From TrEMBL:
Entry GO MF terms: acyltransferase activity, transferring groups other than amino-acyl groups
Keywords per UniProt: Acyltransferase, Transferase
Pfam families: Acetyltransf_1
PROSITE patterns per record: GNAT (PS51186)
Domain N-acetyltransferase: 1-166, 172-329
Entry-linked PANTHER family: AMINOALKYLPHOSPHONATE N-ACETYLTRANSFERASE-RELATED-RELATED
The protein's name in its UniProt record: GNAT family N-acetyltransferase
InterPro entries per record: Acyl_CoA_acyltransferase (IPR016181), Bact_Acetyltransf (IPR050832), GNAT_dom (IPR000182)
Organism: Arthrobacter echini
């Protein structure tokens, strides 16, 4: 086996990488549906403020596994590492070798590695932690529950009228006059929600970055359904977004939801979520919607439960502090 970088400009290699990723996910998460090779390739190549590196484990001309290391320009001290090994080649140390190679390939600015694992049961994550992640030095930073709404059958309540606020919905982009404020809310989603030991900080999205996100999704065949609440002064105080994949049978997912602190307690979180779900239903072609919340995020979990979301999977986010040896010091 040899591990070497994958050329992001090579369509054939990225198609093979997608096949390995899909096979590994389908094996670990029965019923999993991918986003399609073309959409995945566009994501890897996107000029979206992330530096993406892919490494492949090869046996001759066969790609057995791959690792991705992804670092955001906004958070250069944190690198996400994800690894997929084809089921036919699991159990031979390929995954561990890929993790170690990906850690070495990361920027010197990286101070910690983060990875996410989603499985049908907590027992599956615990087993992977004991067998694979813990020996590599990764520890649980937080846990989340993935929930799903049967949108086709859901009995959605009407969007509540809240005095002093106006709720509206948009497909594939909100009006430009709101984009700077929405970018600020998007940057607060991870920072203000419970996140265990991850220590996320605010990372605002500029209007230009927001437009780039919308353009990328359209190129990938996806749609964005966003709902916002605007106060009497014309300020955006609540936001949510559903991403519609455009793949038959694949669930849409909620990118995030946030209500500014000074405007909480009025039902705006549930209001914008309801509005986006109604708009997604009108858009059509969406049977299911998924989302996840940190297990300590009691408020958002209660909102999702009240809307009819039910648990379907569990997720754990692991992290590892980089040591000097991994920097070659």
């Amino acid at each position: 086996m040899r591990i070497r970088p994958l050329d992001l400009a090579d369509d054939r290699i990225l198609a093979a990488a997608y096949d390995v990723e899909s096979a590994a996910n389908e094996h670990a998460r029965p019923g999993w549906i991918g986003s399609g090779a073309d959409a995945r390739t566009l994501g890897w190549r996107a000029d979206d403020g992330w530096t993406n590196r892919l490494l492949g484990a090869w046996d001759g001309g066969t790609l057995q596994g791959l690792a991705a290391c992804m670092t955001s320009d906004d958070v250069p001290d944190t690198t996400w590492i994800l690894v997929w090994v084809h089921p036919d080649h699991q159990g031979h140390g390929i995954g561990a070798s890929l993790v170690q190679a990906a850690e070495r390939a990361c920027s010197p600015s990286t101070k910690r590695f983060v990875t996410s694992v989603t499985r049908p049961r907590q027992e599956d994550i615990t087993d992977l932690e004991i067998r694979f992640l813990s020996p590599q030095g990764y520890r649980v930073a937080t846990t989340e529950t993935v929930v799903e709404l049967d949108l086709a059958a859901a009995q959605l309540a009407d969007v509540p009228m809240v005095k002093g606020y106006t709720v509206s919905s948009y497909v594939d982009g909100i009006p430009e006059r709101f984009r700077e404020q929405v970018g600020q809310l998007k940057g607060l989603v991870d920072a203000e929600a419970p996140h265990g030991e991850l220590g996320w900080e605010e990372t605002a999205v500029s209007p230009e970055e927001y437009a780039g996100e919308i353009d990328l999704r359209i190129a990938q065949g996806r749609s964005s359904v966003e709902s916002i609440a605007v106060d009497a002064h014309g300020n955006v105080v609540a936001w949510t977004c559903i991403v519609v994949p455009g793949i038959p049978g694949k669930a849409a997912w909620i990118e995030g939801t946030l209500v500014l602190k000074d405007h909480r307690g009025h039902g705006l979180g549930a209001g914008v979520k309801l509005a986006s779900l109604h708009e997604a239903r009108r858009l059509g072609g969406i049977d299911r919607v998924t989302t996840s919340s940190d297990d300590q995020n009691v408020r958002m979990r209660s909102i999702n439960t009240a809307l009819g979301f039910l648990p379907v999977e569990v997720e754990a986010i692991f992290q590892k502090v980089r040591v000097d040896d991994e920097l070659g010091l």
